[in-house]
Design goal:
heterodimer; A: about 180 residues; 5-stranded parallel β-sheet; 5 strands; B: about 190 residues; alpha/beta; Beta Polymerase, domain 2; 2 domains; 7 strands; about 20% helix; about 25% strand
Amino acid sequence: MGVTDLPAPRVGLLPQVPKPMRFVLNWGRRYSLWVFNFGLACCAIEFIATSMSRHDFIRFGVIPFAPSPRQADLMVVSGTVADKMAPAVQRLYEQMPEPKYVISFGACSNCGGPYWDSYCVTKGVDQLIPVDVYVPGCPPRPEALLHGIMRLQDKIAAEEWGERGSPLPATEYPSLTRTPDGA
Amino acid sequence: MAPEELARAFAEWFGTGVSTEVTHGQLCADVTPYDWIEALTMAHDSLGCTFFDWLSGVDDLDLDPPGISVVAHLYSPEHRHHLLVRTRVPAADLRLPTATTVYKGANWHERETHEMFGVVFDGHPNLIPLLLPDGFEGTPLRKDFILASRVAKQWPGELAPGQSLTDLKPGRKRNLPPGVPAPGEWGPG
């Protein structure tokens, strides 16, 4: 089966989504993040703790029941990424549908952490895939992940329509190019 | 069986070709590489060590004679004794007959020892890398393996919180851990 390029998502005939609608659409997206946990080490336990009743990130609309990366919006890489594992991380990231987001959770996936000098550990998952939010800590507490999720939701709320997952480069929509302050 | 009895059994079988010592309540028997398979077979058949626990390597390239020691840990479920069998493969010819003929479970352990230490196990059915990623070069568990990250960045652990590298006394000679070359010895100057 060949690859089909889908047109950029748009509302009605307008190439641009008016700001109030964009607000509502982004508001819907930011509170229905189906998350896929790429648990590789002890940080995954903290992720699980965050999903359980005490911290309960489902109250933020983060739903940890994505049956596969193909149904997920958010990937949380929690743990040590080994060079042997790196192709799998990349492959599963590529299987996720756009728009997709990545949270790098913990020192190991941020930069290698205590294994910074190892012969087999990838020095940060951002060498393989783009990362939206980094959560520091070894391991970070569940509150830190909740904070990271809220930062990601702020980021989604500030997004222009078509900024993510558009087959057209951003230069074709001059008004859609990102500005450093996120405005 | 007590470790002393096991030592006696090894001494009877191999004579002067074996040296034994009791460490941590277990017997460790050093044999020559030629006696490696015979020692394992003897442990399996005569001493009841039917359970193969693990096999690994030790970098003894800085000892005399230089080589890689290969150690196998065996256990007897019947007599409940542990046994370490060790041999030092000479550095000039890192070859050892495979232990998979005696213990099938040694297969993956030998693959790992092969990729980590560079010991070639003759007669192994499938001696391909087990854990290292494709295209990896080098034998990372040897002491002479260079850790490239350590070359680029000094070990930050010797600094107290809030200290920077310039605060360290320059005159003091630092002990370099394994895998870390002296400054200016490796890589682009």
